[in-house]
Inverse folding.
């Protein structure tokens, strides 16, 4: 039963790659092949013809809605396969261009510092699979050597030990990845200690920065207080000077009345003594004795 299923799968794949099975009969005399009439089909021919429809159905069921719409007009499995191949791989020129791009990716491939072995190997496998789908394949030995070359400088001791202790020609790719993951675990165990030291260093630096910042703030506050105190002292001194000037002005007004204010009212001449005749009632410049003389 298993052999029968395997045979069917092989025949179905042949139909997809080569085209539908068409029963042919060879004329013994002319050696010319002609299509066998349906009435003369053998059981084997009928089974292979049935595989034509099965192959077309299997391909359609495996496609997405978008891909299925692209091959709706294809009536045989080979046309479906060719249409999909042309769409995804392109023409021979496009295929060669994609191979060149893939080879470039393979050559410059490097493991990033922030990614682990699984992430690196996943990217590497994607590039290798893409090239394989385009017809470009790499041996296990080539892939192993490329992986060892793409590791960061911190992995150099491990790379040296692997190349010296193991035969790269017989080394399995899974064994290499397992060894790298084991070494990665050791590296990760060392990282917390380093991180702890870095955190402590950063904490001490931040504390020093905070202390210096606080000192600067205190100095600025003291300077502002000093400036404010000096301003208040100057203001108080100015206020005292103004008050002293006001008091002096009041004293001057008290002992030296304003002449304008005195001339506003009438002067009683009967109380005025003349310096010429020493009599009351007039001023010296208007004294009658001076006029007579």
């Amino acid at each position: 039963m298993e052999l029968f299923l395997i045979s069917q799968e092989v025949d179905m794949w042949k139909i997809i790659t080569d085209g539908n099975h068409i029963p042919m009969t060879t004329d013994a005399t002319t050696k010319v092949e002609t299509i066998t009439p349906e009435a003369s089909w053998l059981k084997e021919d009928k089974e292979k013809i049935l595989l034509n429809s099965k192959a077309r159905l299997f391909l359609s069921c495996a496609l997405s809605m978008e891909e299925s719409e692209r091959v709706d007009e294809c009536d045989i499995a080979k046309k479906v396969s060719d249409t999909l191949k042309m769409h995804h791989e392109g023409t021979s020129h496009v295929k060669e261009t994609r191979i060149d791009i893939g080879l470039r990716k393979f050559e410059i491939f490097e493991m990033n510092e922030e990614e682990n072995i699984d992430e690196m190997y996943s990217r590497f496998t994607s590039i290798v699979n893409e090239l394989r789908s385009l017809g470009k394949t790499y041996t296990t030995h080539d892939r192993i050597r490329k992986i060892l070359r793409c590791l960061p400088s911190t992995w150099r001791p491990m790379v040296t030990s692997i190349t010296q202790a193991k035969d790269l020609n017989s080394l399995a790719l899974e064994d290499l990845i397992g060894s790298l993951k084991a070494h990665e675990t050791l590296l990760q165990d060392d990282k917390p200690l380093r991180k702890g030291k870095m955190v402590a260093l950063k904490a001490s630096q931040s504390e020093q920065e905070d202390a210096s910042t606080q000192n600067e703030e205190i100095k600025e506050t003291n300077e502002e207080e000093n400036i404010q105190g000096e301003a208040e002292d100057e203001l108080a001194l100015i206020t005292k000077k103004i008050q002293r000037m006001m008091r002096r002005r009041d004293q001057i007004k008290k002992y030296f009345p304003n002449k304008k204010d005195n001339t506003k009212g009438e002067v009683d001449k009967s109380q005025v003594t003349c310096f010429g005749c020493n009599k009351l009632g007039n001023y010296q410049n208007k004294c009658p004795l001076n006029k007579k003389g």
User: Anything to note?
Assistant: The CA atoms of residues 117 and 184 lie 8 Å apart. The chain has eleven helices and two strands. Residues 173-255 form the longest helix (83 residues).
